[in-house]
Write a structure and sequence with these properties.
The complex is a heterodimer of chains A (455) and B (385). With 455 residues, chain A is an all-alpha fold. Chain A has helices spanning 3-12, 20-24, 28-36, 52-71, 75-106, 110-122, 136-145, 152-160, 163-168, 180-185, 192-201, 211-221, 263-275, 277-291, 298-310, 315-323, 339-350, 358-367, 384-387, 390-407, 413-421, 427-434, 439-448, and strands spanning 224-226, 239-241, 251-253, 256-258. Chain A has a domain at 334-448. A two-stranded antiparallel ribbon of chain A has the order 1-2. In chain A, strands 3-4 form a two-stranded antiparallel ribbon. In chain A, a hairpin with a 2-residue loop joins strand 3 (251-253) and strand 4 (256-258). Chain A is globular and about 75 Å long. Chain A starts with a helix and ends in a 7-residue tail after the last helix. By secondary structure, chain B is an alpha/beta fold. Chain B has a single domain, classed as Alkaline Phosphatase, subunit A. The longest helix of chain B has 23 residues, at 256-278. The chains are: A mainly alpha (455), B alpha/beta (385). At the A-B interface, helix 11, helix 18, helix 19, helix 20 and helix 22 of A face helix 5, strand 6, helix 7 and helix 8 of B.
Chain lengths: 455, 385
């Protein structure tokens, strides 16, 4: 077992499965690069998983039925029906999260999975908005997994114009103020999507935009919406461009003038944003923070920024450059695992069920990171300070204690340490686990050890 | 040798004492819940997502209000003073206002102007005007306060406002069975050289030892439970002087009336619960309910409002001289709006915080301007106590 093998599996991947560190140790970089050659393996497949279009259609139908039920008189029957419909929504969501968890726990391509999840968090869509419960899963599959290894411009366009994002950031409620329909029905602009694309997805809060840029961009984005019966769209459940909702006219964003061109106007702005040097800087900083340290060095950020710019935003090239950075391979693990990373990495070794059932939901909530429910569009934090507070550590200990009770009969704690960490395990941790008074206590300590809590 | 082996039946409090006696150094700086002389209490409630101040506290006699907002002015409001009124769902707040235990500061904002939630919340917690710092202003206040103070945040994650060199606790009720004391002792041993996890675990156990079972089993909606926990922890013997609670869900870009009405009702119930749990401590308490910025004065196309500037704060508690609207009111005439869209930020939030730190804990305004809110020396105090 080599240190670099253990780093490849734990820091770049989702954590070791039994024997994985041994398998990877002869050629850790090769293992990572070979994953990038087969990006299709990041896809989650399953017969029962809905496409985006199906999920949006069913969501529209769900809210339609709910409205009809609300109008019906008999209250007990209505209540029963409402509960059934709500349960169907939740079950679809649970199926999506379960498929995602099972994939992350079983995949031999841990780096692809971590890369996907980084971008999924970068382009956060949260099911805290109830109408998105059924759509967040298809969103990640169709917009993120399918495009996280190509050009950033393609990923950006697919993510921000996906029905889930259009709903999440209210673009389906944004109307060109000078369109006849807005004038007649007193509708107007909603800046939310435009602002978050600038601030979160592309050039960043210090990227140099003004309120005027936000408004101009929001005007350009009007018309991009989700096809629905109410709009009498030609396509239901898909992203559509409705010319009659689009604010007519030329737009100026970040000093560049864009001619009125209907749907293409916003696409042209997105293209420029993807190329903007501030975007390269912003993405490089977030990637370095995710893979190297909470406060990455300027040199590391610069390397990734150059890789981005030299390849015109090719994300596979950026991933390669990350793999080739010396600092990515330093022995000290500087990244404190998020709750989700902790749970996935322990499940990869312990073989506990990873279906998102009632018990699992309780654990994710207790640790503060239930899947697809980030508090806001900036996603989950990626710094230890946000996850390693006193109460959070106590909650992790409660989790480890419970997990060890379930898993201890079938596992040897010291074997867990070896399989999970290989040469990264400290003598102190090995000793503590060896001297534990029971398997359960040993496994609790192994799960809580400083090395397993980090990557 | 593992010194903790023998302690199978120790209570958590004894584990702490025995570890302390063994001289485990990471325990030494912990004073989050130590006894302090000061009776004064401060609760900061951060409404994350930007509460719409003009719907919560509308200025009903301003002729422009209904021109800007054709459908977002609440009905059945509760009258305050000077033409202001409260949203009907803020029943408790209204009662406190009338009994002189609540004051309202309108047209309030921090020094930031870029209308980003995350940036504005970070700056609100940093206490800076442009650059987000790694530590929060309330933590810096702990460091320079004339007497030793203790602080806790409610929730599993430590918010930026309390992060920093001074020890500060965070607490939320356990959701799973807890580990036994022997395991905890061994884990503390394992963390002895870990600068991140060691102090965090030690802190958590100390808080638990003080909180004990006191705050378990709190029921209620997502606002009532954390507000109740804050009150109960403060009222516990040896409890903290300062508590921080965050309440989310205020970003009402669309269909604002329903969503905001629910949130305000929950907030109001949370305040009632906090007061109930504080008991006699209410007399010495000041509660500041703040939000990162206000929302646009004009409603948008979706029956909602967008990110704005001037917002509103509620200041409550027995330590507050209430029944007053405090601060300047800029008006709603189009030419008085900030950038022709937002309520003008006539009052600086740092002046409110600095004044509370002074009245509750004796920090001088000079000290506050130097180390708590750097660059705020020209800011006018907003005195509510």
């Amino acid at each position: 077992m080599s240190i670099k093998g253990a780093i490849a599996v734990t820091r770049f991947g989702m954590g070791a499965r039994a024997g994985e560190i041994v398998d990877v140790s002869s050629d850790p970089k090769g293992w990572l690069l070979s994953q990038l050659a087969e990006p299709d393996r990041a896809q989650i497949r399953g017969n029962d998983l809905l496409t985006t279009k199906q999920a949006v259609e069913e969501t529209i139908a769900h809210f339609q039925r709910r409205r009809e039920l609300q109008r019906q008189a008999t209250s007990s029957e209505r209540q029963q029906q409402l509960q059934m419909h709500n349960r169907k929504q939740r079950e679809a969501f649970i199926a999506d999260v379960s498929a995602r968890n099972v994939h992350a726990v079983n995949t031999p391509d841990g780096f692809l999975e971590r890369w996907v999840r980084f971008w999924s968090n970068h382009f956060t869509v949260s099911a805290r908005k109830p109408e998105l419960l059924r759509i967040v899963g298809p969103y990640e599959r169709d917009a993120i997994r399918a495009h996280a290894f190509g050009s950033f411009e393609t990923l950006l366009t697919n993510a921000v114009l996906h029905p889930a994002m259009l709903v999440y950031l209210d673009n389906q409620k944004s109307f060109g103020p000078n369109t006849p329909i807005a004038q007649r029905r007193k509708l107007g602009l909603n800046e939310n999507l435009a602002r978050e694309i600038l601030e979160l997805h592309t050039i960043g809060v210090d990227g140099g935009y003004t309120q005027q840029d936000v408004v101009e961009f929001a005007r350009a984005l009007t018309g991009w919406t989700v096809g629905s019966p109410r709009l009498r769209s030609r396509k239901i459940g898909e992203t559509v461009f409705e010319e009659r909702l689009h604010e007519p006219g030329d737009r100026t964003v970040l000093g560049v003038r864009y001619r009125e061109a209907g749907a293409v106007q916003a696409l042209a702005i997105l293209k420029e944003l993807a190329r903007h040097p501030s975007t390269a800087e912003h993405l490089a900083t977030k990637l370095a923070r995710h893979f190297i340290a909470d406060d990455p060095s300027d040199a590391d950020i610069l390397s990734l920024k150059r890789a981005y710019q030299d390849s015109d935003g090719d994300l596979t090239e950026v991933a390669r450059s990350l793999i080739n950075l010396d600092r990515s391979w330093e022995r000290e693990a500087r990244k404190f695992k998020t709750p989700e990373e902790l749970l996935i990495s322990s499940a990869r070794l312990l073989g506990l069920p990873s279906v998102y059932g009632r018990g699992a939901r309780r654990i994710y909530q207790s640790l503060g990171q239930a899947p697809f429910t980030a508090p806001g569009p900036d996603g989950w934090p990626d710094e230890a300070a946000a996850w390693a507070g006193p109460d959070a550590i106590k909650k992790r200990l409660e989790w480890a204690n419970r997990t060890a009770r379930l898993a201890a009969p079938a596992s040897m704690p010291i074997a867990f340490v070896t399989d999970a960490l290989g040469p990264l395990a400290s003598e102190r941790t090995r000793m503590a686990v060896n001297q534990a008074e029971s398997r359960r206590q040993g496994l609790t300590l192994a799960l809580m050890s400083p090395e397993f809590q980090r990557r | 040798m593992n010194p903790i082996n023998r302690s199978l039946s120790l209570s958590r409090r004894t584990v702490l004492t025995s570890l302390g006696a063994m001289g485990l150094t990471f325990l030494a700086p912990t004073r989050a819940f130590s006894q302090t002389a000061s009776k004064a209490k401060l609760v900061i409630v951060i409404l994350r997502g930007a509460m719409d101040g003009l719907a919560a506290v509308p200025k009903l006699d301003d002729p422009h209000l209904r021109q800007h907002r054709t459908s977002l002015v609440p009905n059945d409001t509760r009258p305050l003073r000077d033409g202001f009124a409260l949203h009907p769902n803020l029943e408790t707040v209204h009662g406190l206002f009338q009994s002189g235990d609540a004051a309202i500061v309108h047209a309030l904002a921090g020094p930031w102007r870029d209308r980003s939630h995350f940036r504005a919340q970070d700056l609100l917690e940093s206490g800076t005007d442009r650059t987000v710092t790694k530590d929060g202003w309330l933590n810096r206040a702990l460091q320079v306060a004339p007497s030793s103070l203790s602080a806790v945040s409610i929730g599993p994650a430590q918010p930026l406002i309390l992060r920093g060199q001074a020890p500060a606790a965070s607490w939320s009720p356990p959701m799973l069975p807890e580990a036994d004391d022997d395991t905890i002792g061994r884990l503390m041993d394992l963390y002895a050289e870990d600068d991140l996890l060691g102090p965090a675990l030690a802190e958590a156990i100390q808080v638990d030892a003080v909180a004990g079972d006191a705050a378990k089993g709190l029921r209620g909606n997502q606002f009532v439970a954390p507000m109740g926990a804050a009150g109960r922890l403060i009222a516990t013997e040896g409890g903290p002087n300062i508590a921080v609670v965050s309440l989310g869900g205020w970003d009402t870009h669309a269909n604002q009336n329903g969503v905001l009405g629910n949130r305000l009702r929950q907030l109001d119930q949370g305040i009632a619960k906090l007061k109930e749990e504080l008991g006699d401590h209410w007399r010495h308490t000041a509660i500041a309910v703040v939000t990162e910025f206000g929302r646009t004065v004009r409603q948008n196309g979706g029956q909602g409002t967008d990110h704005g500037t001037g917002g509103v704060a509620f200041v409550m508690g027995g330590a507050v001289k209430g029944g007053r609207m405090i601060g300047d009111w800029p008006g709603l005439a189009p030419n008085r709006l900030y950038e022709n869209r937002d309520l003008y930020p006539a009052n600086d939030m740092r002046g409110l915080f600095a004044s509370l730190l002074h009245s509750q804990f004796g920090l001088t305004n000079r000290e506050t301007a130097r180390s708590v809110f750097p660059g705020s020396s020209g800011v006018r105090m907003i005195v509510t106590t």
